[in-house]
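Entry 14. Structure prediction run on the chain below.
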Amino acid sequence: MFSVYSIVFLCGLCPAVLVTAHRKALIDVSESKAVKQLDERFLSVALGSTLIAERWKTFNVSSLKLQNLARGLSPAYVRLGGTYADFLIFNKTGTPSENAIAEDTDLWLGGCGVNKAPKNISNFTMTGQDWDSINKFTQAVGWKLIFDLNVLLRRGGHWDSSNAEELMHYTVNQGYHVDFELGNEPDAFHHALNRTLSSTDLARDYRHLFALLQKSAGLQKSRIIGPDLTRPSKRALKYLSKFLTKASSVVDIVTVHQYYINGRAATLNNFTDPHVLNYLLDIDEYLQLTRKLAPGTPVWLGETSSAWGGGADGLTNRYVAGFM
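Output returned:
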């Protein structure tokens, strides 16, 4: 296992062991001491903000059956975010929107395989009732909520935090305790959403978020989590480097995303191919960079699965996906 000082969200950073075919390997496991101690919320859950846009039709938070199943996973974090987070508008008394879903949702929701920009996506509304429902659900099942704020609400090149401030004010009045992210995969905005947001601008936005939380009596203990970058690449590593140089002092947890394959092109052999499985080792580049620029800051996998783009039917929902 990597000598990581951090708690990893959703997935452990364990390197795949390559063993030559037909060759015996002897593995001796010492039980004299623990190599790592995991957080009790090590295994956690990520939900898409799409659920709100779709009016919870596939995730009924009032269902007692769902609550009982979710309670079995507690304690855990639940991250409510993803691509749709950057189109979500909070309106305490508003009417839910119905027109936010893009035609090719399953194509572009992935963490690192976006092929084209969404066709028909638009801003949608999260009402006070929606916010109450998800917070009451997480409280009932013993989960800790992490909410991804809309970073694409901008004015004059800066993040327009007015809508986030409305949500924070409502959150404090309701007595909810929430941790926050700001934006989803900003390093991929240019090809996912036909927008751009520089790492320097994002760092400034995170510092602004920190200032907002510090002046809110009920949210000063809320953690700031991000920047939720895509799988390691030269571009993503450069983005994280510049971001941490400017914002490491206000970020409590660094988050990155990891997927192995494109769900639309996945084959059965991909799920047991050592070369594919070792893609996870690339995360070490993020770990090393964070150690250098933000010593002591934990690194989490904030979003992960076997295949991006909604998975691969008949594969990602089968036993073989467990190898990833």
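The chain has ten helices and 13 strands.
Filed with the rest of this week's runs.
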